[in-house]
Write a structure and sequence with these properties.
Blueprint: H1 29-48, E1 52-53, E2 57-59, H2 64-72, H3 80-93, E3 98-100, E4 112-115, H4 126-134, E5 138-142, H5 164-167, E6 169-176, E7 186-188, E8 193-195, E9 199-205, E10 209-215, E11 223-230, E12 233-238, H6 244-258, E13 271-278, E14 281-288, E15 294-296, E16 303-304, E17 315-317, E18 322-328
Parallel strand pairs: 2-3, 2-4, 4-5, 5-12
Antiparallel strand pairs: 1-13, 6-9, 7-8, 7-10, 10-11, 11-12, 13-14, 14-18, 15-17, 16-18
Helix pairs in contact: 3-6
Length: about 325
């Protein structure tokens, strides 16, 4: 943990960027809270060491090449990280174990993986993505992914370039969306019409099946979203941006396919749930982000590392407080 700063600066541009201590150097609330946190961390540290945060869903983020490539010509489109934030927030609200993972990292423990509009897909990442799908993973790829090379030049191959076989499609037509208020384009499913923003692509299936079609203008009834079944895994290609309305409409389908469920269904709103695993144990973190108490009507069996109370029973979580229950893995 890094706190900025110890004592609040008395001159310069950061005079009111509050430190642990105020300008007068007298300990108050912030100091006392940090002191409490330090004592609690020292007490639970032996249990934390050797564990890692469990995630079942991941979104691709933190790639400098893709972020910089977007900035060179944004065309008014959201950045990959802007869309990643939407996906992460929607999963977080459902208390899904979600994290941020790069395509070159280990994907073996992930069940559902999103790549949100990364125009640059390096060839060396492809085997890792293929192995992920072959081993039963669900991969969701957004529009424009794989359409540029490492030099940020548009590829001469038909999109999605090197992802063509994995996705089982090609992109037949694409365009920036204009005047969607007067000339709306929506994704059509059996039961819904989902509004889109920014971009559309007409897909041509090769080995993939059509999951949803377009509704609007000259692209009505043409493929909008496809699913390519590969061994025990699936690759969804979404021919538009993964905006809030699109994620709301299809997230439950992707979670169901991946077999992902909420971490703890009995936790109330604004109580964050995180699991750390390792050394044959699970550590359940229940973090109350509210300014008032929250009731946990049921908790995992085990012991709260902070209070020493036994879990497996209803517990009250104080405002802005945390319970950490240790249980067997």
């Amino acid at each position: 943990l890094l706190y900025f700063r110890w004592r609040t600066c008395r001159f310069g541009a950061e005079e009111y960027w509050c430190g642990i201590l105020d300008h007068d150097n007298i300990p108050r609330r912030r100091y006392n809270e940090i002191k409490q946190l330090g004592n609690e961390l020292a007490r639970i540290a032996p249990e934390i060491l050797g564990t890692s945060v469990m995630i079942e869903v991941a979104v691709a983020t933190a790639d400098f090449d893709n972020n910089d490539a977007h900035q060179t010509m944004t065309m008014g489109l959201p950045s990959p990280d802007n869309i990643a934030e939407i996906i992460h927030a929607k999963c977080f609200d459902k208390r899904i174990a979600i994290g941020c993972v790069h395509p070159s990292d280990d994907l073996s423990d992930i069940k559902l993986y999103f790549i949100p509009h990364w125009t640059i897909i390096k060839p060396e990442w492809l085997p890792n993505l293929e192995n992920f799908v072959n081993n039963g993973g669900i991969l969701v790829i957004g529009a424009r992914t794989g359409t540029k090379n490492i030099d940020n030049r548009v590829i001469s191959d038909t999109p999605p370039g090197i992802l063509r076989k994995l996705c089982g499609i090609t992109v037949e037509e694409y365009s920036r969306c204009n005047d969607l208020i007067n000339r709306p384009i929506k994704i059509k499913t059996d039961n819904d019409r989902v509004p889109i923003e920014y971009w559309y692509e007409v897909l041509r299936p090769e080995s993939a099946e059509v999951i949803a079609t377009w509704n609007g203008r000259h692209i009505t009834d043409l493929p909008a979203i496809t699913c390519n079944n590969i061994d025990s895994g699936k690759v969804y290609y979404v021919g538009t941006y993964l905006t809030e309305s699109v994620v709301n409409a299809f997230l439950n389908i992707w979670l169901r396919d991946a077999g992902v469920k909420t971490l703890w269904s009995d936790s109330p709103n604004d109580v964050e749930v995180v699991i750390r695993k390792g050394n044959g144990k699970k550590l359940w973190f229940f973090i109350n982000h509210k300014d008032y108490e929250a009731d946990l009507y049921y908790t995992p069996k085990g012991v709260d590392l902070i209070s020493g109370k036994m879990g497996g029973v209803p517990m009250e979580l104080n405002k802005n407080d945390v319970i950490i229950i240790k249980s067997e893995e």
